[in-house]
Every structure is written in structure tokens, then in C-alpha cells.
């Protein structure tokens, strides 16, 4: 089995280009599993990236491989959300 190398980094505005693809994959994944995950928009994903609240995994060739962001509320609670892995 060949081992692949990935880079996992805090997402930044250079990753905005992946927002639509990530949203589409989230929707398709939820549909395939029959779950009622709230649909996110590319603008929402870009906002999480801009806020520094997202990480992205990239392949050695620069393709997105995974993505996750955090939600915060009331200044003291944090939850990971939007976890998706490219098929």
C-alpha cells in the first residue's frame, strides 16, 4: 500500500477556491448517509476561513483532502463542525 503525504494547515484566503467544492461534498455526503446536516454556503465556509476557524488538509499536489471548522458561542463554548473528507 502506498502511503500518501498530506499537509494539514490553518485555512487562509488562498483556500477560498475550495469553498464551493467543500459545500457540494458536504451535501453529497449527507445525502448518501441519509442525514439531515444543515447545508452550508460557500460564503459561510469562506467566512470561517477568514475568521481563522478552519483547517484544511491538502495532498502533495495541492488538492483538498479534508476540511473542518469550529463553531464558538457565548465566548466559552467550542465545537468542531463541518468535518468532511474528500472521497
Tell me, briefly, the overall form.
Answer: globular
Largest sheet: 4 strands, antiparallel
User: Unreliable stretches, pLDDT < 50, 5 or more residues?
Assistant: none
Computed CA radius of gyration, to the nearest angstrom? 13 Å
Tell me the fraction of residues in β-strands, as a range.
25-35%
Question: Whole-Å distance between the termini?
Answer: 17 Å
The helicity comes to: 25-40%
Structure class: alpha+beta
Q: In order across it, which strands form the biggest sheet?
A: 1-2-3-4
What report would you give on this structure?
Helix content is 28%, strand content 34%. With 87 residues, it is α+β, with helices and mostly antiparallel strands. It has a 4-stranded antiparallel beta sheet, covered by helices on one side. A hairpin with a 4-residue loop joins strand 2 and strand 3. The longest helix has 15 residues. The radius of gyration is 13 Å and the shape is globular. It starts with 5 loop residues before the first strand and ends with a strand. The model has no long low-confidence stretch (mean pLDDT 90).
Amino acid at each position: 500500500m502506498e502511503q500518501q503525504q498530506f499537509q494539514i494547515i490553518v485555512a487562509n484566503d488562498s483556500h477560498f477556491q475550495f469553498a464551493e467544492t467543500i459545500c457540494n461534498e458536504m451535501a453529497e455526503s449527507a445525502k448518501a448517509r441519509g442525514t439531515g446536516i444543515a447545508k452550508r454556503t460557500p460564503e459561510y465556509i469562506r467566512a470561517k476561513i477568514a475568521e481563522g476557524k478552519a483547517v484544511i488538509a491538502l495532498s502533495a499536489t495541492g488538492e483538498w483532502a479534508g476540511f473542518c471548522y469550529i463553531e464558538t458561542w457565548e465566548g466559552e463554548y467550542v465545537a468542531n463542525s463541518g468535518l468532511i473528507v474528500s472521497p
